[in-house]
Amino acid sequence: MRIPIRIKFTTLIFLLMLVITSVIFWFTLHRVRKSLTHEIRLQGEILANLIALNAEDPLIAKDDLYLARLVTDAIKNEGVRYAYIVDSNSVIRAHNEMELIGRPVDAIIKSQNTYHVTRPIVLVGKKEIGKVGVGIDMQRIIKTTDTMQVILIAISVMGLLLGTLGAMLLSRYFTGPIHELVDGVKAVTDGDLSLALKKRADDEIGDLIAEFNKMTKSLREKEQIKDAFRRYVSRQVAEEIFKKPDQYIETLQGSRRKVTILFADIRGFTPLTERLPAEKVVLLLNEVLTIMTKIIFKYEGTVDKFIGDSIMAVFGAPMAHDDDTDRSIHAAVEIQKSILEMSAQKKEKDHEIIKIGIGINTGEVVVGNIGAKVRLDYTVIGRSVNIANRLQEVAGGDEIIISEDVFKEAKVPYKFSESMLIKVKGKEDPVKIYRVLY
Predict the structure, then answer these.
(1) Distance CA 230, CA 237 (A)
(2) Using an 8 Å Cβ cutoff, are 14 and 152 in contact?
(3) pTM (whole model) above 0.70
(4) Which residue among 16, 199, 244, 256 has the highest number of C-beta atoms inside a 10 angstrom radius?
């Protein structure tokens, strides 16, 4: 049997309120009873101690009149049913009931609803010369808790009635938008991502509808997000990551790995920007960077970042290949050839000639998302990155400079110049470099 959510919701609220009111009912009565009991006991103990302190000398002097006044004053306190003083022979010397005076203390009948407190009357030498007894009426606890119980029952019944009525109204308010959301989810399941639900109110239900609309919009933009990601890595790498994203979680969180870093920079671009209009500068820069990016993607490298008129690429992250070093050299050679062809065409049209300097290094780096919580950048950092950048600074126009580590791993059909030693900023020892003779 299918039970509507409205009935389930109302029943749940009723049972929940019943449990809560029962707990509050018990806890309140328990606390009131405990507090009153503690108060009564404290009152009896204080009063008995006070009488015992004042009864020492009168008891020794057998001043029964003074002892009687102490008992009479004690009875005037609220809730005190009786008070008495006995001597060392357990004979009552003072009592609020005159007929008990002179009788043994056993003659005192203690009521069940009375809290009885006794305190010894002790001299300085710790000699006990008598006792004080005080009886505090406990009946007011019963009266107070009975009154409290009636009040709490009335409040609980009223609360349950109002809560049940409110739950019924809320269930009607909730079920309408929920049915709309169910229909919307069915539509999304069927592949209809154009659905947009109308937000009826500015509350949690309205927020849920708004989030549903955001979800459908997010699904519509999924391919756009994929396309944006492909702008950072080659299409092949992007598709591979989409298929097996769990394999790259460690890299995204930060890890050490061996990669090859390529820096390519346009030589003499700053003076060029001063001669050309801003629009032509941007068009020219975008044209050069587009050529380099396409070639980097062709060899499945990752564009780490654009730095002004230069580009930084990584081969080996997030996806690694056995021949990442060779891929970087192939990409560098193809970039230089493509830029030379572009420059030759521009020279024929009396346009500016573009020259690129490229530096390549391989080594261990830290790979991961770097930045702040509100802005992250997937990048590589480490000494190997700095060396690659320094090699790019050394390279002249149309040159490709590689480090000794790249030279040792390279298996490409290109020749290399004789090794050269250069001083690199940040390293004390000279660095051995090679020029790719493409």
Answers:
(1) 8
(2) no
(3) no
(4) 199
Asked: is 5-141 a CATH 3.30.450.20 domain? The reply is: yes
- Packed helices 278-298 and 324-348: angle between N→C axes, nearest 10 degrees: 150
Q: Which long-range contacts (CB under 8 A, 24 or more apart) does 235-240 make?
A: 235/297, 236/300, 237/300, 237/302, 237/318, 237/319, 240/319
User: CA-to-CA distance for 364 and 92, rounded, in angstroms?
Assistant: 99
Q: How far apart are CA 430 and CA 2, in angstroms?
A: 81
For the chain, what are the domain ranges?
5-141, 243-437
Strands 92-95 and 114-122, by their bridges, are unpaired
Give the span between the Cα atoms of 144 and 394, in whole angstroms. 94
d(CA 44, CA 5): 58
Contact 14, 141 (CB under 8 A): no
89 to each of 120, 127, 129, 131, 263, how far by Cα in Å? Answer: 13, 13, 9, 10, 109
- Please name the residues in contact with 328: beta carbons below 8 A apart, sequence gap of 6 or more: 260, 262, 299, 301, 313, 315, 360, 362, 406
Contact criterion met (CB below 8 Å) for 276 and 354: no
What average pLDDT does the chain have? Answer: 84
Top pLDDT among 16 and 242 is at 16
**pLDDT over 90 at 185, yes or no:** no
Q: How many CB atoms lie within 10 A of CB 144?
A: 15
Q: Which residues lie across from 91 on neighbouring strands?
A: 104
Q: What share of the chain is helix, strand, coil (3-state, %, to 5)?
A: 55, 25, 25
Q: In what order do the strands lie in the sheet with 80-87?
A: 92-95, 80-87, 128-137, 114-122
Give the whole-angstrom CA distance, residue 346 versus residue 392. Answer: 24
Q: What is the pLDDT of residue 427?
A: 73
Nearest CA-CA partner of 32 in 125, 144, 112, 196: 144
pLDDT at 249 over 60: no
- What is the distance between the terminal CA atoms of the chain, rounded to a whole angstrom? 80
Report the b/e string of 72-82 with b at 16+ CB within 10 A. eebeeeebbbb
DSSP 8-state code for residue 259: E
Is domain 243-437 in CATH 3.30.70.1230, yes or no? Answer: yes
Q: For the stretch 386-403, what's the b/e string if a residue is b when 16 or more beta carbons lie within 10 angstroms of its beta carbon?
A: bbbbbbbebbebbbbbbb
